[in-house]
């Protein structure tokens, strides 16, 4: 973890009298452009949810987020952008994601159709890296969050 991320968390935790270790820090999607674009939607309050393929969590040994847990979202330069706290986490098949959840991801025209098409492309590409094939019943980790600090 970078010194900037650690210092940012330590300052945040001290101001709020939190006795917690520095949480996971990550950027949305792949690449600086996507991290900046999606991160800006979070800062603007448009993006209040995200999802990930459950199988990728398993393959990478990554823990499933827990309600109340903090994370640090990074920008395209891997610098802290915001601190979020999870408000809801559930496992849902992709073809069972609600229109409300799709809208809360804040992307494109906010329609379910845009969300579904964009996520088919994203997960098809991501799963191919692991030799897996996308199917409409792909199990997702659907996460809603609130921004608790903007850097």
Report what the structure shows.
36% of the residues lie in helices and 25% in strands. The mean pLDDT is 94. The protein has helices at residues 3-15, 32-43, 54-60, 99-104, 112-128, and strands spanning 25-26, 49-53, 70-74, 80-93, 139-150. With 151 residues, it is α+β, with helices and mostly antiparallel strands. The longest helix is centred in the last third of the chain and has 17 residues, at 112-128.
Total DSSP helices: 5
Broad structural category: alpha+beta
Distance between the termini: 17 Å
Helix content: 25-40%
Strand order of the largest sheet: 1-3-4-5-2
Mean pLDDT: 94
What does the largest sheet look like?
5 strands, mixed
H/E element order: HEHEHEEHHE
**What is the number of beta strands?**
5
Q: Radius of gyration, Cα only, in angstroms?
A: 15 Å
Assess the beta-strand content as a share of residues. 25-35%
Shape verdict: globular
Short description:
Helix content is 36%, strand content 25%. The protein is an alpha+beta fold and 151 residues long. The longest helix has 17 residues, at 112-128.
List the helices and strands and how they pair.
Elements: H1 3-15, E1 25-26, H2 32-43, E2 49-53, H3 54-60, E3 70-74, E4 80-93, H4 99-104, H5 112-128, E5 139-150
Parallel strand pairs: 1-3
Antiparallel strand pairs: 2-5, 3-4, 4-5
């Amino acid at each position: 973890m970078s010194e900037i991320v650690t210092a940012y968390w330590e300052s945040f935790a001290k101001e709020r009298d939190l006795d917690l270790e520095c949480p996971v820090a990550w950027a949305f999607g792949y690449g600086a452009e996507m991290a900046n674009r999606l991160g800006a939607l979070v800062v603007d309050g448009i993006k209040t949810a995200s999802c990930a393929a459950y199988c990728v969590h398993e393959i990478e040994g990554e823990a499933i987020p827990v309600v109340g847990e903090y994370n640090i979202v990074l920008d395209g330069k891997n610098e802290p952008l915001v601190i979020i706290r999870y408000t809801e986490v559930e496992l849902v098949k992709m073809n069972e994601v609600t229109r409300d959840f799709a809208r809360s991801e804040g992307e494109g025209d906010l329609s379910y159709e845009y969300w579904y098409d964009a996520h088919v492309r994203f997960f098809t590409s991501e799963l191919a890296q692991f030799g897996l094939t996308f199917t409409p019943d792909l199990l997702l980790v659907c996460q809603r969050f609130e921004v608790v600090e903007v850097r």
